[in-house]
C-alpha cells in the first residue's frame, strides 16, 4: 500500500474532533472501540468524544463492556442518587472482578467526575447515565436481586433465593458450574427463568424508583443469560461469544427503551465487539458482535462505529487469566499491518474517515489489525493478535495514536485518594 495516499486528519486536540462530530451527524448509536483494555489514550480520547456527544448532541448515556451491578453504582453516583457514595473512589472500588484495572483506573475516574459535575445542573430526565452491558456478573447480580427484593417485595424474593441456592454449591466459580452441567440438560436454567418472569411481572409494584426497578429486572436478565453463557462456554466454539454479544445488544435495546423514543447511546467496548464482525474472519466462524447487530437492527445510518489503534508503547494486562496485572511493552506493529501503514503514512496521531478509504483498492482486501486482550504476551503477539479486517467496512472512523502508554490503575498508588500527576487527563 502506498501509505502517503492514505487520507487522514491530524489528531492533536479536542478541536481535531470537529470533523468526526460532523461525520457522526444524527446517528443515535456511537460505538467507541479500543485495541486493548489497558491503554490510557483510548480512554481519554473516548472521554473527549463522549463529552462532546453529550453536550453538543444530547446523548443520553454511556454503556460499557462492564458488569451491570458495578456500573449501575457508578450510574447512581453520577446522577446524585442518595447513598450512592461521596467520592469517585467509593464507586470505582466496587470493580473487584479481574481485570480490576479495566474500569478501576484514573482515566475512568476523570470521566465519572465529569459526568457527575455535568449532571448537577440537569433535570433528572436529562442526566447522562453510565451502565454496564456485560453478562459475567451472575453471582453479584443474584445477590443484588435478593437484597433489593427483601426490601421491596417479600413475595417475589423466594424465587430469587431459590435461584441463588441452585448456584450456591459452585462457590462463585463459573468454570465449576459449566463443568458440572456439561452432561445434564438444564442446570439452574429453570430457576433463573422463573425468577426473571416473576420479577418482570411485579417490577412496576416494587418502588417509585423507576431506574432501581429496571436494575432489578436487568440483574435477573443477566442471571438468565449468564447461565446460558456458562453452559455454552463448556461446548467451545463461538456459541458463548454470541450469547455474550447478543446479551449486550438486548441490554442496549432495553436501555434505549428506558430512555425514550429519541434516546441516543454511546457504547465503549473493545474493537472486536464494536467493529462489524462481517468485515473480519469472525464471520466464517458464525460469530456476531454488537457493532454488526446495531447496524442490522437499527440501520447503518443510525450507527457510527469508531475503531482505535496504535503502533507501539505500553499496556496494562496479565500473562494469563487472573494473573497479576503488569505494565508491558507493546512492540512495534508487524510490517504490512494496518497499524504499520498508519505509522508510515506520516508523523503524529491521525483521524481517518473510512468513507474516504473506500476508494483505495488495497483496503478492499483483509489487512492484519492488532487486537490486545486482558491476557497478553508481547513476545508471541505476531502469531495471534492480528485480526484480518476490511477496515472501510469494519468501521466508520478510526483514531490512531502512534505511541501509547498503559492505563493508570487506581490501586497502583499507595494512597488511592491521591491521583497521579496530571490527573484528570484530556480536560
From TrEMBL:
Range of residues in the leader sequence: none
Organism: Adhaeribacter swui
SUPFAM superfamilies in alphabetical order: EreA/ChaN-like
Top-level taxon of origin: Bacteria
A Gene Ontology BP annotation from the UniProt entry: response to antibiotic
Pfam family, one: Erythro_esteras
InterPro entries on file: Emycin_Estase, Hydrolase/PRTase-associated, UCP036794_erythomycin
Protein name according to UniProt: Erythromycin esterase family protein
Amino acid at each position: 500500500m502506498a501509505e502517503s495516499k492514505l487520507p487522514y486528519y491530524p489528531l492533536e486536540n479536542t478541536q481535531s474532533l470537529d470533523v468526526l462530530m460532523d461525520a457522526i451527524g444524527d446517528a443515535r448509536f456511537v460505538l467507541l472501540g479500543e485495541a486493548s483494555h489497558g491503554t490510557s489514550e483510548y480512554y481519554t480520547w473516548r472521554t473527549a468524544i463522549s463529552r462532546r456527544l453529550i453536550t453538543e448532541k444530547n446523548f443520553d448515556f454511556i454503556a460499557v463492556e462492564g458488569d451491570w451491578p458495578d456500573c449501575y453504582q457508578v450510574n447512581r453516583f453520577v446522577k446524585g442518587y442518595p447513598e450512592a457514595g461521596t467520592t469517585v473512589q467509593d464507586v470505582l472500588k466496587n470493580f473487584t472482578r479481574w481485570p480490576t484495572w479495566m474500569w478501576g483506573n484514573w482515566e475512568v475516574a476523570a470521566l465519572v467526575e465529569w459526568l457527575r459535575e455535568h449532571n448537577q445542573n440537569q433535570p433528572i430526565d436529562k442526566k447522562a447515565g453510565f451502565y454496564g452491558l456485560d453478562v459475567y456478573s451472575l453471582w453479584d447480580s443474584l445477590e443484588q436481586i435478593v437484597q433489593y427484593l427483601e426490601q421491596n417485595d417479600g413475595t417475589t424474593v423466594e424465587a430469587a433465593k431459590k435461584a441463588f441456592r441452585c448456584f450456591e454449591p459452585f462457590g462463585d466459580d463459573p468454570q465449576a458450574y459449566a463443568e458440572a452441567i456439561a452432561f445434564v440438560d438444564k442446570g439452574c436454567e429453570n430457576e433463573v427463568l422463573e425468577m426473571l418472569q416473576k420479577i418482570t411481572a411485579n417490577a412496576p409494584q416494587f418502588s417509585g424508583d423507576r431506574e432501581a426497578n429496571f436494575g432489578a429486572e436487568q440483574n435477573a436478565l443477566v442471571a438468565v443469560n449468564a447461565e446460558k453463557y456458562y453452559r455454552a462456554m463448556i461446548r467451545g466454539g463461538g456459541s458463548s461469544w454470541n450469547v455474550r454479544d447478543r446479551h449486550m445488544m438486548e441490554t442496549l435495546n432495553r436501555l434505549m427503551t428506558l430512555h425514550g423514543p429519541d434516546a441516543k447511546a454511546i457504547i465503549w467496548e473493545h474493537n472486536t465487539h464494536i467493529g462489524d464482525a462481517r468485515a473480519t474472519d469472525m464471520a466464517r466462524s458464525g460469530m456476531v458482535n454488537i457493532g454488526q447487530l446495531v447496524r442490522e437492527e437499527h440501520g447503518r445510518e443510525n450507527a457510527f462505529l469508531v475503531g482505535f489503534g496504535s503502533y507501539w508503547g505500553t499496556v496494562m494486562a496479565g500473562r494469563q487469566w487472573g494473573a497479576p496485572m503488569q505494565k508491558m511493552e507493546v512492540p512495534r506493529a508487524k510490517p504490512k499491518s494496518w497499524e504499520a501503514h498508519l505509522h508510515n503514512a506520516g508523523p503524529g496521531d491521525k483521524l481517518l474517515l473510512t468513507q474516504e478509504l473506500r476508494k483505495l483498492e488495497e483496503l478492499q482486501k483483509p489487512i492484519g489489525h492488532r487486537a490486545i486482550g486482558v491476557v497478553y504476551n508481547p513476545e508471541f503477539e505476531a502469531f495471534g493478535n492480528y485480526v484480518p479486517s476490511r477496515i472501510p467496512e469494519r468501521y466508520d472512523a478510526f483514531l490512531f495514536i502512534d505511541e501509547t502508554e498503559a492505563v493508570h490503575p487506581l490501586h497502583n498508588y499507595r494512597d488511592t485518594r491521591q491521583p497521579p500527576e496530571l490527573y484528570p487527563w484530556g480536560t
